[in-house]
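Repro case for the chain-ordering regression, as requested:
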Amino acid sequence: MHHVHLDNWSHGSSPLHARDPRAKILALLVFLIVLATTPPNAALTLGIDAVLLVSGILIAGLPLGNLLLRAMVVLPFSLTFGLISWLAGDRLRALALVEKTYLSAAAVLLVVGTTSLPALLSGLERMGAPRMLVLVAQFIYRYLFVISEQAQHMRLAAASRQGDPRFHRKGRFRAAAGALAVLFARSYYRADGIHRAMLARAFTGRFQLLNSLRFRFADGIFLLAAAAFLILVRVQ
Amino acid sequence: MTPLIQVRGLHFQYEDGTKALDGVDFTLDPGETVALFGANGSGKTTFVLHLNGILRGQGDITVCGMPLGKETLPAVRAKIGMVFQDSDEQLFMPTVLDDVAFGPLNLGSTPHAAIHLAEAALEQVGMQHASGKAPYHLSAGEKKRVALAGVLAMNPEILVLDEPNTFLDPPGQSNLVHLLKSLPQAKLIITHDTHFAAALATRAVFFEKGKLVAEGPVDEIVQRFNWRYSALPADLRYSAQRRF
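-- result from build under test --
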């Protein structure tokens, strides 16, 4: 699963891992804006952006091939729109569209792969993201592991009571639908249990977080250098 | 001696009409460890969820001299540390340190003080090395220890543990017994494991159909209700061996 790999990657110790999440989020934002506003015929700019991204992945010590493979998750969408542009006769725009979306996805993976989700969410919250939204994301991430484990157990239980799978497609579909319903019901009861556990530890409806982030001098330098380089490449 | 918990005439009925508690009277004195026995659905968990006001039935509950009510709820929840059966429900924060600090922060500690309390509690349960880890990276035994640290960080006077040795392997159970024995708080332990209860409890009570029907020394209660695995009739034991 994606989140398991990203979670493992995010526990590294490279200079990029050490940066404050806010610096990385802002640098990512600059990267995405620069990429979005780069003209389709600016192949050199797009090339330099790609080189910068690959350098970032290597500095972070993340598995280059694996990350680039995972970034392909956006290709079905971007290829569809690229194909429409291609058929409309604008081949340059079609290629740029696919390249830009792919580089964007790889850049997001680089930031998420070098920042633990708690730090990332904490950074977003400190930057003004609605606290409730951040909390919902945090809970989803926390319980994805638990729910996916339950789903695995149910899949095994279903498989162990199944005959030849080639002859039972309809039954398999029905079992999957039933498992989904059970997972939903279990998640509902689990949510109730979590709420009880929160109340038992004096929760009154407002989350108090430790918020241990510190934006250091090196984070500022990193952000300034990344932004300046990207903007210079874009305007040249 | 003022009891830590005093319950008088507690009744509770779930929304679907199920009568879960039917006139329960109970007292917990300082220093006591009481095991709660009873069949599944007999009302044990429902009973303990009343002690810190998570469920509210009819009857009188006094905790550390405070009658349980809306005004006293925060203070009561600071006095009773509840460890739930499923640690995954209790460990909901992104890191172990965040989770253990959750209670102190809710009680008004500053982030700095909460970190200090959380680190001390983690050390108490031998999990200080895991403070930066995500809870899903822990084993079942480690999760249980962290869940316990989460309530110890609130410095409670009473610990309530709902089937604490569930999902633990024998070494994990043994470690938990040692850990619980070392904690000075009075304890209420829901369990089906009579050996676990005998190792820790000074007294046992037995629930049946929402009523507390008996209390006394652990061995006496176990014998009276034939409440142990080895109480299986000999023919059943034999057939179980043959089947496997």
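Ordering looks correct now. Chain A has a mean pLDDT of 87.
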